[in-house]
Predict the 3D structure of the following.
Amino acid sequence: MSTAEQTADSPVEAAIVNDMREVGLMPEIRRREATVMELAAVIAGSRDFPDCRTPEKAAVRILAGREMGVSPIASVIGIRVNAGRVSMDATLMAGCIKRSGRYDYKVSAHTNDVCALVFFENGETAGESAFSMTDAKQAGLEKKDTWKGYPRNMLFARALSNGARWYCAGIFGGSIYTHEELGIAVDDEGRAVESEAGGNGNGVGNELCTRDQRQQLCQLVEAVGDSMPQFMAKMGIRLLDELSGYEATKEIKRLEKRAAKAGTAPAESARPIGTPPPSSALSPAQQTIADGFDESRRPSTPDQRDAILGLAQFLVPDENECHEMLVNALARRNCRKLAELSHLQATALIEALQAKIKTARAEKGEADNCPFDPAPRLPGMS
């Protein structure tokens, strides 16, 4: 459907829109595509990809896939970036080669002992890539569970990745590997099954940590004298629920040792992970963190915005001066409207205004209370 058809409701209107566009009276309407970071934020926020829990991690995979013509979701599922090296599922790698229109491959031999692939470029033979169990033994691969259970699949993946590096540089733009080549545990289809942050080699560690684990972490961090912001910064996370179950268990054990050594271990730390803690074990602030809630992303409430307007007008009765003061206060917080303030920003602004009113009234010898009614909306402050 053309832009004109989307803009107009009838053929006559569509013709008028086209005429107006031809004489320059109506600009072409174009749809804006989502940016990489917008896509990454949606993917990470969905929590449907346990090993891709931050927008930055998702964005890196999307960008790596974009260079090879892979869609965003396929990139997040099938691509990994480890120490600057890119790996991908064998099936995704095969699809990239088949869809390229320039490169292709054909299986010439495929048994439990050897896999041989013939690669083509523009219809002409470029070379052959073969990988055998003898090569696997030389590389010390034959003892791995996946190689014992699925030798044909593993041989195909190795032959394919070698051929991709040797003969298909036009697609991958450099070295490309399968996950298994970079030490990432894979399933029988060559798909990564282990969390990048850790795991036990059997795929355990991909699941996110539980609420009970987050509560234990909050208690233990407080017991050893650390703060949650420091702990999360050290782990490179912004929310506790970004930790995998494996990572959380590992940190719980580490903190328990520290607390026991210092003699500050909380009574609840000895509680089995599956047993819920008492409801009073955590303070409201700790419970918020343990629940994985990011307070900085919580939007301000209408009551907070009314309070800000009321306090501002109480402090500066002149409407123009009040408006200018609020605009400057919002600009310092990278906001244009009160509705763009987060809950924390609104709380901080209310406290700042209350402090100014208290100081002003103290200078005049008046009481420091500042009651006000809900204030009318100022222009541009909604």
Notes: Strands lie at 79-82, 85-88, 103-110, 114-121, 124-132, 177-178.
